[in-house]
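Sample entry (427 residues):
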Amino acid sequence: MANYQQLQIEANKIIRGTHFYRYSESSYFAHEIQMLKEGIRDYLLDAEPELALKIAEKIIKADGRILERVDDSMGNVGPELNDFCILWLQAASKYPAPKDGWIPRIVKLVDNDDYGCRDALLPNSHILLSMEEMQILYEFYKNRYQNITETSGSTSFSHINSAVNMGQVAIAMKNPQLYEASIRMFSQNPNTPSQKLQPEHNEVVNDMQMLDILKYYFKFGYPDYVLEVIKTREWEDRFRTDVLYLEEQVLKSTGDISALKKVQKQQYRNNPSLERLKEYLKDQNSKETKIIIEEALKIAETDTKLCRGLSVLLEYRCYEKALEIMIIRKEELDSGFYGTLLSLLDQITGKDLYLIETLIYRALLSDILNRAYAKAYKYAASYYRKLINLDKKIETYPEAMENHDVFLEQIREKHFRKHSFWKRVER
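Predicted structure, serialized as tokens:
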């Protein structure tokens, strides 16, 4: 009981607290909620499931008030609140069902979900409900959908939400046929400009919907059906990448290596990244591997996405060619995505490739200063000092590449007003 009382106090702090957590503080608030959840699991779930259920339901019902206490743009708090739905189902499963069963309580919680923090209830309802009870719940939402259609023909939120809830229950039942039926209840015809809702059991589903449907057929053990639809359906170009990815996952599960390699080759052609190349190379014999790598290096040299091509060249030790391309396409390198530049740096760490390192550190430094991103000036200062140390190891610079002194002078002229940066450099 002492544990319960302490956990109640913590729950009340989370619900009734007055402090507003800013964007930068949201992770701390999420951690408080997580610690409460773990405390309930550790001390109440098995020993006192009724008390665990009581606190979990209290948090769920207060989810709107809790979310209004935080700027959750980062998405830290919402998932923690959704986890309380799982906890509620687990606690309820260890406690005798009320006279009218658990279904009415689940329906009520779902109906009052105004913030999307109870999305985990229906697809995980198998934790608490039997297959027969889930079938009843599925039929409940189906009847609700049909009643709204018959009375008003409405396309309101509650109308569509009933079909969505059917699908979520179907997931808990691991029944892809029922999930597909829920999608077809309000399927949109992609060829109809008005995008009006179609009648029940419409045979037309758009490609996005069909991909979603097939993912559940695959997840619940129907790989052959998934492959059949992928092969026979005419897919829009914008979905072909996602279709190929799904086909790859299915073929991996079936062990059809020959078909898998054909798909992976196509994926690599569409996106000649190092990651896709490595997938394509798996299970290839030495002769094929050599041919594929030689072709990949040629593609990398002229890749329209500079950093993608460089990643392949660096992986297979084509350092001179990589340096040549980096110098020629310096402006593209300087405008490269910060995270991608760091990944390139990871590939060459400890390999004494000082000129390539220098170009990457210059790009990283320029990126931070050009954006005037003051929060990252400490990193920019470290890059600046790193360039000084690298210069000591470089005997000569290529003619097409500015030497160290010229580059630093350019930085000083362009960013001399960024006093907080220069203070960090001088420390």
